[in-house]
Hints:
By secondary structure, the chain is mainly α. The protein has helices spanning 3-21, 40-64, 67-98, 108-128, 133-160, 175-178, 181-222. It is built from seven helices and no strands.
Amino acid sequence: MKIWKIAVAIWLTLVLIVGFLLRIPMIPILEETARNLFLHVPMWMTMSVCFFIGVVHSLRYLSSENIDFDIKAASVTKVGVIFGICGLLTGSLWARFTWGTWWTFAEPKINMSAMAMMIYVGYFVLRSAFTDEKKRAKVSAVFNIFAATTIPFLLYIIPRQLPSLHPGADGNPAFSDMTAPELRVIFYPAVIGFIGLGMWLYDLTYRTQKLEYKHQQNKLQQG
Length: 223
């Protein structure tokens, strides 16, 4: 195991242990659920980093047609979707304890986030529709770039223009305005830790996908 992976494991473990044992001030409405800040927001940030890296690899594939960039784009995007789904689940859990419901169609942030995940699920459905690897890689790269351009609108711009209970929208205070200093001390290390975890999963997924690709190529050559 590489040293940086050991460092990520130790870092994130310590962050989560301290985050859930640390005494925090009782913020109105949020109360103890404010600790979800260490999970929910870092997961979205990790998702965004993964999607950005995926776009970079997609662009590199379009400029070089090196299949390795397509594998990297698909691998890191898959990890991004996983973190996005985890972000939705932790957000839904937070909504249950602060708004009294697991899900509401009146809350644009939740629904736009779900729509963004559906777009990225469509990316993998699209990939499975092609047998020709070059055509699959090229179409997937274009779709991946398109999907990434929807994220700022679906997750940030549109929800801020609509009535919302989410912090930072419709006149509600943002977390930066209401977050206690104790939470910030854990929040920023948590962001670093989850991004590190995301890169670890990306590396693992990429190496697995690379082996599968080589296995398929060997089967084609032998057949």
